[in-house]
Write a structure and sequence with these properties.
Layout lengths: L2 H21 L4 H8 L3 H46 L3 H18 L36
Length: 141
């Protein structure tokens, strides 16, 4: 084993230990003391470990999304010809598959949920308190 690989192995071991200690609730200063590192180095190691974990989770999620899309595509391929011939149940399933695919791929526009108005660039909704009423005085004034 050369010096570079030994240093890399040591760095990875420190990173794993630092992440384990952080998960256990230790401060960066405490992690540094336990691993004979500076507080800032302990912080860096924890952040690197978290970033690698995030990358793995993202990769796994992407793989799962691809698998789910392939599954949906397989069902769609079988149901679409039946739907095209007028099978109402098959047409319903084709639409459901399309909805699921759109949701997985983020194709649908976000649903607006603001009730008061004024948010999301919408004009504010007037209330009775902000409306001026015209009341003629019928010559009594």
């Amino acid at each position: 084993m050369n010096k570079t690989s030994a240093a890399s192995a040591r760095k990875l071991k420190h990173q794993e230990q630092a992440l384990d200690l952080r998960r256990a609730g230790h401060s960066y200063a405490a992690i540094g003391r336990k691993l004979n590192l500076s507080k800032s180095r302990a912080h860096i190691l924890v952040q690197l470990g978290l970033e690698q974990a995030r990358s793995q989770i993202t990769a796994s999620a992407d793989e799962l999304k691809v698998e789910e899309l392939a599954r949906l595509d397989g069902m769609l391929a079988k149901l679409y010809p039946m739907a095209a011939k007028g099978d109402v149940q098959a047409a319903d399933r084709v639409l459901k598959i399309g909805e699921r695919r759109a949701k997985l791929l983020g194709l649908d526009a976000p649903t607006r949920t603001a009730l008061e108005g004024g948010g999301d660039g919408a004009p504010p909704i007037s209330t009775a308190a902000s409306v001026t009423f015209y009341m003629p005085d019928n010559g009594r004034g």
